[in-house]
Amino acid sequence: MFFMTSACALIVVFMAAGLLIKSFPVLRANSPAQILFSDSWSPLKGEFGMLAFIAGTVWVTGLSALIAMPVSLFSAIYLSEYAPSWLRKISRPFMDVLAGIPSVVFGVWGILIIVPLVRDCIAPFFGVYSSGYSILAASIVLAVMVFPIIIQITIEVFHSIPGELRDASLSLGATKWQTIKLVLLRKALPGIIAANVLGFSRAFGETMAVLMVAGNIPAIPHSPLDAGYPLPALIANNYGEMLSIPLYDSALMLAALVLFLIVIMFNLLSRYILSRINLRAA
Amino acid sequence: MTSRKKIEELFFKCLMVLSLLAVMGSLVLIIGTVIYKGAGSMSLDMITSTPEGGYYLGKKGGILNAIAGSLILTGIATVAAIALALPLALYINLYRARRSRFAEMVRLSMDFLWGIPSIVYGAFGFSVMIFLGIRASLLGGIIAVTLLIIPIMARAIDEAVSLVPRELLDSSYSLGATRFEAAFKIVVRQCLPGIVSAVLIAFGRGIGDAASVLFTAGFSDRIPLSLSEPAATLPLAIFFQLGTPFPEVRDRAYASALILTVIILALSITARVLASRFNRHIIK
Fold first, then answer.
1. Can you give the CATH number for the domain in which A96 is found?
2. Which of A40, A151, A257, B6 has its CA 20 to 30 A from that of A159?
3. Is A176's CB within 8 Å of B6's CB?
4. Closest chain B C-alpha to A181 CA, distance in angstroms
5. Is residue A214 less than 8 Å (CB to CB) from chain B?
């Protein structure tokens, strides 16, 4: 049992090592700076500049954060502080179901609803043409995917705040909203940040749904209505041809390694924040 | 002053209700869209037959290959993951001190794995397969999905096992039970609801995930009969059908999405029902 447990625990190390070994050839052929900061992506010529894909990932993740953060924060405050108990009770399975829907189904929904919405309503509103398959569409779909993760952790953070704090503030004559704004939010801030970081590490690596609605054009996007081509989509789209072109598979493994490292960093960051709150609460 | 306070509160309360409506509304919208679009092109053929020649051009057939492929692949992967995750959770809770350094290291590693995107599992699984000389096959898919769901299951079972009261363990040890007996006869029974829901959650994640099987399981029009054959999976069937230019085939993609959604919803309901049923075996 000891060996089995250790073996499972070491999977993460094996993955890091495997991806690193696999991505070594491309790192030797191109300098890391060239790969990270150049946007010339032509595998046939041996050029693997990933800037366009990194930019696509940053755009999509950032924009979905912008949409999801306020909405899930407000929902979580409402569910934990204002909502009647019946609503709280039914919201929990609601969130579980939303969290359990496969990303392909989110993608189908994105194609059916969000893409036409962007094409026919949002883009004409700003007077630009867009096919609808855009960063904005991907961000909206991603935001909906991370709602349940962020909301559930944020609610837990609010529940961990002692009731005495609320009572003390209310008894001093503060309204409920003032209590939330001046007392609870201040106390919950680190936890809220951690919840968002965790949510976005999920959004960051999400592949299928984004692949289906983001448009996948390998150029640096300039507005949310442009098509983007995030890193996970790059990996997923090119698995077929990657063995026939030298260094191509190595470059894709490097993309996987970059995702791996960033997600681990996000994870460490949110753990650090959460563990500091626990210390303070104890 | 008072009225300003009230207006501010009302304003933010409205924002909150709107946000919650947006969240709940999007779930209703997703399920609604999938049912509305899927039900229209749903037929018995879809779930009882495999694709015939020219299926992806709009000819006859169904996606039984993908349904069966997904169930077989995820089923075996789930069993394999239980075989690894259950002993892991019991080991770090019973054989080691619950908060020991080793146990915390294992938990940390499981948390890392839990967060890693499934496309990375797919890429990693693919390079392992090349290393071992396996082609895209049922076996390859099983390896990738097993790796993907081990951390989900391990963390959920660990959570259930860590709630077992100390007294229950002490009394079973004092009656002469070995650690092994205590772990597999007492603790497993006590945690059965938690374990069952962990298994079902993991199964749901596994069956819905496309990125990890994209490289590893391949795709085929037949139901896989051996581990070395490529296997079709439901998420990929949806993805590929949606990628064709033919409206009939795209409609079938919606129907396939409906099938997948129904499977996921059924799993989630089963988890709830089973968890409440197994609750009677628990010593409180």
1. 1.10.3720.10
2. B6
3. no
4. 10
5. no
Domain that holds residue A208: 53-281
Residue holding tokens 């992967």?
B77
Lowest mean pLDDT among A140-154, A263-277, B82-96: A263-277
CA distances from A262 to A19, A50, B39 (A): 14, 15, 41
Residue A33, chain B, CB below 8 Å: the answer is: no
DSSP bridge partners of A48: A41
Contacts B5 to A, Cβ<8 Å = 175, 177-178
SS (H, E, C) B34-70: HHHHHHHCCCHHHHHCCCCCCHHHCCCCCCHHHHHHH
Q: What is the pLDDT of residues A186-244, one digit of tens each?
A: 888 888 888 888 888 888 888 788 888 887 777 788 777 788 888 888 888 876 666 66
Asked whether the beta carbons of residue A260 and residue B120 sit closer than 8 angstroms, the reply is: yes
Confidence of residue A253 (pLDDT cuts 50, 70, 90): confident
Whether the full predicted model's pTM is greater than 0.80, yes or no, is yes
Segment B209-268, tens digit of pLDDT: 888 888 888 787 777 787 888 888 888 888 888 877 788 888 888 888 999 999 998 988
pLDDT over threshold 80, residue B205: yes
Q: Is residue A214 part of a domain?
A: yes
Q: From chain A, pick out residues whose CB is under 8 angstroms from the CB of B12.
A: 74, 177
**A168 belongs to a structural domain:** yes
> Residue A17's closest chain B neighbor by CA?
B124
Residue A23 in any domain: the answer is no
Which residue from A94, A103, A176 is facing B210, i.e. has the nearest CB? A103
From A130's Cα to the closest Cα of chain B, the distance in A is 20
Task: Report how far apart, in Å, the C-alpha atoms of A137 and of each of A167, A214, B41, B238 are.
Answer: 43, 7, 26, 19
Q: How many structural domains comprise chain A? A: 1
Q: Does A82 touch chain B (CB under 8 A)?
A: yes
How many angstroms separate the CA of residue B117 from the nearest CA in chain A? 5
pLDDT at B280 over 70: no
Whether A157 contacts chain B with CB within 8 A: no
Q: Which residues of B are less than 8 Å from A249 in CB distance?
A: 127
Asked, for residue A39, whether it belongs to a domain, the answer is: no
Structure tokens given for B209? 């995930």
Residue A256 DSSP SS3: helix
